[in-house]
Hints:
mainly alpha; 13 helices
Amino acid sequence: MRTSNTNHGCSLWQDALQRLLRNRASVLSGIFLILMVLSCFILPLLPCIPNPNATNLEAIAQGSSWQHWLGTDHLGRDMLARVLYGGRISLLVGFAATAVSFILGLFYGMVSGYVGGRMDAWMMRAVDVLFALPFIVVVIVFSLSIEEPCREFTSWVVRYTGWSRDSVAPLLGLVPLFLAIGALGWLTLARIVRTQTLVLREQEYVLAARSLGLGHGSILLRYIAPNLLSPVIVYTTLAVPGIMLTESTLSFIGLGVKAPNSSWGTLIKEGADRMEVAPQLLLYPALFFCLTLLALNFFGDGLRDALDPRSAKD
């Protein structure tokens, strides 16, 4: 009598997914993040959500009602619309700046660790110098220095595409934030990637590929980069909250998103200025912002545990 073996092996990614799904906090955080992204990017498209910049001086600082679920601000603007639009900008800045940091840090760290020697030493000393600079101050200076070129680029886009400035300017106006935060947010990632690359370049499969005559670019892309994905994905997931906090800090001091557009940082600033007379103006954006950051951290921790082979239990 023959018996069939129904036990099938699973890949590293399948095993990591199973461990991630067993982490209830991470699963709930992931569901919350999906709902938050869909709410910020899809709900504002519905006709029931008013224009976030439309003022109504007859409905200043009203409480929650059927017409305005989260009330209105000091200019009579709908708070739900402003929170959703502000979340769209905050999430967009967080993910876009993280993508810039991901590309720069991965490339720089791989090249530094793979080349080694004096080149590696010089590249890491450059990272140390950038680490010594005050991050917020450098971001402010860099953002202000590229603000005028971005404004000229916005005018060029409007002139040659025929699109309205009101629809183009809010998005293109975020480019200085993307570049400024992302251009300096890659330093820690570069160190992580460089350390992992130093280990991977001495592995047998890399040495075998090198002995077969494969080029350095092929080795980096086919053998080293795939094995760096686990720590890189974990770090980028945990970096999004920090970048969103940086954007909120810049917006809070008036160097981020420009009025009348809003992010969660600008809404928190406006609410802090009027918290004694209208505390809900601070409560709602702060609640959305804190819950999103908490969910991102929970999801990042769960992803780290899932992708770490040492956390697997027999």
